[in-house]
């Protein structure tokens, strides 16, 4: 049984998606600081507004000020996923490393193949691929 977050503040990533007939809820908890082991790493806060900088390329520990690069930090995280398979309607849970892979798919609007970043995992029952694509603007 996966532990669900009580608030978005304790997550690096959270999404709730409908995929065809299925649905997916995925979240990644913030990791503790490697240096002090106390604080939860987060993006640096803007001194004027006090809000986290969205496009920051590093994560900072609020307790000791330790700085870790975004790529290095995100490689040690795991994604918790609760899903209902769009292929076989099986409901399950899975944990996978938080690594997005390039996946090719057909764009519904243009009908052409495109490459997108996605978290890919297999259904525990039918073993078909389920993708959580990165939302593009």
Could you characterize what this model shows?
This protein has one helix spanning 70-75; strands spanning 11-19, 22-29, 58-60, 67-69, 78-84, 91-97, 101-106, 113-122, 129-133. The protein is mainly β. Strand 1 and strand 2 form a beta hairpin. It is globular and about 45 Å long. The two termini are 34 Å apart.
Short overview:
This protein has one helix at residues 70-75, and strands at 11-19, 22-29, 58-60, 67-69, 78-84, 91-97, 101-106, 113-122, 129-133. The protein is mainly beta. The mean pLDDT is 89.
Features:
mainly beta; four-stranded antiparallel sheet; three-stranded antiparallel sheet; 1 helix; 4% helix
Largest sheet: 4 strands, antiparallel
Low-pLDDT runs of 5+ residues are none
The coarse silhouette is globular
* Record field, number of beta strands: 9
Task: Give the strand content.
Answer: 35-45%
Report the average pLDDT across residues: 89
Q: Provide the succession of SSEs.
A: EEEEHEEEEE
Helix content: under 10%
Total helical elements: 1
Helices, strands, pairings?
Blueprint: E1 11-19, E2 22-29, E3 58-60, E4 67-69, H1 70-75, E5 78-84, E6 91-97, E7 101-106, E8 113-122, E9 129-133
